[in-house]
Amino acid sequence: MENPNDLKKQLVVEFEGEQGIDEGGVSKEFFQLVIEEIFNPDYAMFTMQNESQTVWFNPTSFESTAQFTLIGIVLGLAIYNNIILAVNFPMVLYRKLMGRKGSFEDLVDWNPILYSSLKQMLEFEDADLEEVFMQTFRISYQDVFGTIINYDLKDKGDKIPVTQENKYVSIN
């Protein structure tokens, strides 16, 4: 990071004890090995969404911001060196990198089941929404140890049922 221009040089990879000239294949193997380690579930830096086969940043990761910055640099180096890697982020990540905002529709790429459930609730027009869906303004997720973590989207969100009157209200 002392000289960012060094990141713009062609990367030449040489594995210790192996002969071979890096004409792209060795670099690709290097990046594939690095990516395999980065997305190793044992490090719990990313979570895999089984339905969409995409990965996202683990909100309960113990790793520092510097570790995620390093991952960004590694992925950037791969791109700069024309190495295509099988990294399955949802499209919203790429939109965010381009400075655009995410939307509700972006949820379909990451978690189609959650998207479908929320869409059903939004489209539901009967007055008994509260009784049918039994939802509040609290979300829950699991940390790396399987512990359930609750997060209120509004102050005392677990006490506020979602109704026809408040289902479109901003949670900010």
Summarize this, please?
GO terms for molecular function: ubiquitin protein ligase activity. This protein has 172 residues and is of the alpha+beta class.
Architecture overview:
With 172 residues, the protein is an alpha+beta fold. Helix content is 34%, strand content 10%. It contains six helices and four strands; from the N terminus they run αββαααααββ. The strands form two sheets. Strands 1-2 form a two-stranded antiparallel sheet. Strands 3-4 form a two-stranded antiparallel sheet. A hairpin with a 5-residue loop joins strand 3 and strand 4. Helix 1 (25-38) packs antiparallel against helix 2. The chain is elongated, with a radius of gyration of 21 Å. The protein starts with 24 loop residues before the first helix and ends in a 20-residue tail after the last strand. Keywords: Membrane, Transferase, Transmembrane, Transmembrane helix, Ubl conjugation pathway. It comes from Dendroctonus ponderosae (Mountain pine beetle). Residues 3-172 form the HECT domain. This is HECT-type E3 ubiquitin transferase. Its EC number is 2.3.2.26.
Number of helices: 6
Mean pLDDT: 87
The structure class reads: alpha+beta
Rg value: 21 Å
Shape: elongated
H/E series: HEEHHHHHEE
Distance between the ends: 37 Å
Give the neighbour order of strands across the main sheet: 1-2
